[in-house]
Amino acid sequence: MALINHRAREIHFKIVYYGAGLCGKTTNLKRLHDRLPADRRGRLVSIATDHERTLFFDFLPIDLGQVNGFTTRFHLYTVPGQVYYRLSRRAVLQGLDGLVFVADSHPAREDANRESLADLGTHLVTLGLSPEQRRRLPWVFQYNKRDAAGATPVERLRAELNTSGAPEFESVASEGRGVTETLRAICKAVLARLASEPVAAPASAPHPGPAAAPAGRPASALAAPGTPAS
Question: Quick one: how many helices (H) and strands (E) in the chain?
Fold first, then answer.
């Protein structure tokens, strides 16, 4: 559910980039940050290990103008993909408004993609999202690393992951290909949902910053295609 700060006349949306370790989530945010004008983006915060893997999340607020007199601000997060950061992923997912699932096109990563999607579905159920909520969640798939040798065909990735026919994009995030299109699509989907389901209760504060895990915010997200029902 979007947060509306009536005093500041701002609407805050939270979008989470999800996927297996090293699939390109962090690279997406870095490329977006590089491309956006300085007055349209906030500071990109990355907490990583010595091997450049995301340890907790990246945070990137993007000011996208006004809606009915309210300034809209999108907060983009990634989750740590490694198996042992499972609880951190769940914390980042709290209160999300939209999801981007980044799939690795390398043929050796098919199992990792499927496991990550299943893990996401389990988290959404654990967070208390109903089947209807999960079904209606704004959702975009990105098939990254399309330049990989022997890249898994898009048709195969679609059949394995995007069973509900959500918007999808091919990308090479390291080169910036497909990252802007992916962001534009998820922002459009989130705004469309706001228009169809206006938020009634005002909020007094924006999404938490990167120093703390997101908490205290109603989770109104819906379902990933192929995720388990509660």
Answer: 6, 7
pTM: 0.84
Paired tokens of 197: 């389901």
- Options 3.30.390.50, 3.40.50.1000, 3.40.50.300, 1.10.530.10; which CATH number does 3-196 get? 3.40.50.300
Maximum distance among all alpha carbons in the chain? 53
Residue 37: phi and psi, rounded to 5, are -60, 150
Q: Please name the helix (run of DSSP H) or strand (run of DSSP E) that holds residue 181, with its range, or none.
A: helix 179-196
Asked if 222 and 229 touch (Cβ cutoff 8 Å), the reply is no
What is the chain's pLDDT, residue by residue, as a tens digit (230 residues)?
688 999 999 999 999 999 999 999 999 999 999 998 888 888 888 876 655 556 455 677 887 778 888 999 999 999 987 776 888 899 999 999 999 999 999 999 999 999 999 999 999 999 999 999 999 999 999 999 999 999 999 999 999 999 999 999 999 999 999 999 999 999 999 999 988 875 544 444 445 554 333 333 333 332 333 333 33
- Token pair in block for residue 9: 């006349």
